[in-house]
Structure to design on (325 residues):
């Protein structure tokens, strides 16, 4: 009888212990995963200036390092564009359940894929069509919009009177708008990366509401991690090498038809095309990708990602830039 009572007491104590642990965890999650509606629509002014583009310890396509000049200040959205904001655009633009529309410069294109059908609904934390209109998945209103194609990102920015940032603008802003940029957008010390970014090791396999990590020194949130961010530029693996000339260092806009003839003209490499028209640039890494200490992974200011502009994925989103009038 005494042994039974002792076992019962031990069992109760164990239960209470785990209840305490899980309740603390829930409290912490409630504090960390909070909505930040006050940040929506906030634009941060990025001053004109210079920065050292690229990395000598990263990928070949990040070399050589050169000093790039941005002659004009511009605005950039403080956060990634959210499901709520993108739904407003879709509904006002009259985009039907297919997610397609005739774009400004690229004809009929799919702007997004509904997250309850994409990838069999495995990452249903984006935008869905309820039969009459588009709406965020309940509870994910302030999460970054996902399953957005480059065409969708470009059309949203046009609708808002803005544009996608150039690759150079993105890297400059992420690095703090200074000559020697931060390595991780807010810090150059890997041990502090988790204070600024959601990535594979701390995201638990899911994106998070925008603005829940610390911003970089300009006031830009989630420049590293959460979702990959589309840029305006076409991708060329050899763009940095071919523009290693001072004539190209002011406000670079990415490769154009010149590089279709100069860059890897005889190559049919699908993943690393040398010509305009194949893939678009994205930056910043995402909640899906790992970034371990001692590696040159995707969650770096200098990292260059690239994908076909019609591709949609559970980690593809964007933020907006805007010229100062």
């Amino acid at each position: 009888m005494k042994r039974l009572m002792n076992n019962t007491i031990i069992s109760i104590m164990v239960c209470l212990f785990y209840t305490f642990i899980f309740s603390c965890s829930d409290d912490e999650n409630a504090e960390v995963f909070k909505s930040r509606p006050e940040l929506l629509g906030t634009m941060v002014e990025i001053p004109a200036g210079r920065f050292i583009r690229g990395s000598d310890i990263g990928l070949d396509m990040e070399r050589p390092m050169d000093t790039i000049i941005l002659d004009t200040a511009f605005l950039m959205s403080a956060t990634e564009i959210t499901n709520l904001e993108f739904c407003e655009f879709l509904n006002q633009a009259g985009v039907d359940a297919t997610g397609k529309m005739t774009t400004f410069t690229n004809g009929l294109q799919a702007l997004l894929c509904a997250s309850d059908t994409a990838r069999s609904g495995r990452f249903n934390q984006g935008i869905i069509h309820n039969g009459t209109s588009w709406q965020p998945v309940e509870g994910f209103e302030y999460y970054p919009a996902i399953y957005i194609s480059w065409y969708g990102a470009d059309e949203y920015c046009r609708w808002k009177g803005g544009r996608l940032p150039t690759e150079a603008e993105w890297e400059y802003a992420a690095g703090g708008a200074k000559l020697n940029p931060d390595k991780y957008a807010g810090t150059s010390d890997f041990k502090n990366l988790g204070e600024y970014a959601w990535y594979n090791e701390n995201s638990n396999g899911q994106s998070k509401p925008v603005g829940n990590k610390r911003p970089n020194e300009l006031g830009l949130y989630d420049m590293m991690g959460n979702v990959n961010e589309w840029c305006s530029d076409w991708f060329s693996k050899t763009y940095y090498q071919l523009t290693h000339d001072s004539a190209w260092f002011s406000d670079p806009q990415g490769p154009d038809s010149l590089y279709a003839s100069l860059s890897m003209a005889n190559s049919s490499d699908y993943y690393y095309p040398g010509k305009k028209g194949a893939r678009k640039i994205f930056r910043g890494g995402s909640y899906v990708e790992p970034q371990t200490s001692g590696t040159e992974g995707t969650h770096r200011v200098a990292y260059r990602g690239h994908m076909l502009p019609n591709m949609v994925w559970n980690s593809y989103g964007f933020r907006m830039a805007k010229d100062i009038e």
